[in-house]
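User: Show me a protein chain along with its predicted structure.
Assistant: Here is one chain, sequence first, then structure tokens.
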Amino acid sequence: MGETDNKVSKVFLRESSGLVREVSPWSSMMATFALVTGGVPILIISWLWLAPGINWPLSYAITLIPTLSMAFLFYVAGVSMPRSGGDYVFNSRAIHPAVGFINYFGLFIAFALSLGLYSFLGARWFAYLFSGLGFYYGNSTLISFGNFFSSTTGSVIVGVLIVLVGALISFYTKFLWKFILISGVISFITTAIMFAFLTTIHPAQFSASLAAASGVKNAYNEVISNAESNGLSFVPNPLLYVFMGIPVIWYFLTWYNLPASWSGEMKTVRKNVLYSVLLAILIIGAYYILFTQLNLDAFGEKFLTSWGYISCNGVSDPVFNTFSSISTFTPFFALITTGNVFMYFIMFIAFWLPNFYSNPPLVIALTRYMFAWSFDRLFPEWFADVNSRLHVPVKSTAFVAGLGVVGVLMYAYLPFISIVDVTVIFELSYAIFALSAGLMPFVRRNMYESTVPFKRKVLGIPVVSWLGFLTFGFLMYALAITWGNPVLLPINSPTLISLALIYGVGAAIYITSYIMTKKKGIEPQLIFKEIPPE
């Protein structure tokens, strides 16, 4: 054993992670697609009113540029330090370990809350499915099924099942990544069919069908006029106001950092991170642009924007009230327009499946962050215990499953938890990561030189720094125009207190672990001068 190995073995938890490199590039890419897009299609329609009437494809294209810059920084992190929690490992060694840990502790909380939230909302997809069929067939039994899944009890039962199934799959990694690959292929196929189907629908056709289904004469225009009379105002210039869509779109495009968290288990790391971060974001950007535009073309931009406004703001509207349990579930609009029940189920699969199969990779990511913190002696040792047969941190996986169940129950029985807005956490955490990456060549030059494989310079400044600083600036702008947004970040005391609490707890854990590590005779700063062992 060499001198470096001796030093590493003294400061880190052990000399080997115990994890196995078995994750293929395509599986990782499909996981990213689900993690980023799962649950988003319905939000896209629900939140059109936050930037009513802008040129959405252009806004997506504009936001995609800094997103790709941010994605490249996560790519650099994944290939430079391919370990469990790789992006955290990079962030904690880029400028200062306290910055890296507190930053990623905030992200961890945001992801953990989302595990509970999206599992809880997983039941609502079934509510939309059965309610839509019930309305279409005039079947009270199907509507009752829909009401059950939208109830607190139904949402909790299904939400807890989704968490537990996702955790169970995560215990068996070989099956997990095959499951993700197959689910991803099914999602792509059903999405392509859905897109082709949407091109056959036109607003005039839908308008007539909506009037017939709701029993309200001129229902289509009634929805629009009712929304406008209750405060909805469309922008005067769709091109000039495209910046209004940036905060929403940025939120839709987050989570693509998570593949770096399992980079320690990737086959062909460079190719894997390239596919799962950069290529995935390009595909997802194209998916969002097509999905948004095709729905606007099929059902009409003013109608969908008005429908979402009415849904989110509690406006009383006779047409919406008739179908209130449908929310902004556009497959129902397609069903009443075309009468094609088969396509209704295809569209449901395209919507629901990514929401479901995103849970196992999210569980994996959360456990890998805790694994990395344990290796860095910031968390108890047992979080890094790996089962020798399954090659999985079983205790951590069970712990995350418990967090998911608690999250489901919190969203069901403590509605005020919804005010803990995670948008600002994503913006702040990504911004801190970008700034850290930009500063690394200057403040941690030796670490940068020895680990980062991309050292090209422009005007004497590393490309990584240029991208880091520019992306940081963009995210500060995005945060500024997000602040005060009535949905993404309302300014109120509970929100601010929750954010202070999250980052405060992270700081307290770091300080406590630092003191305890020193008491064990280990210098904490030595840990962060090295990369954890494989």
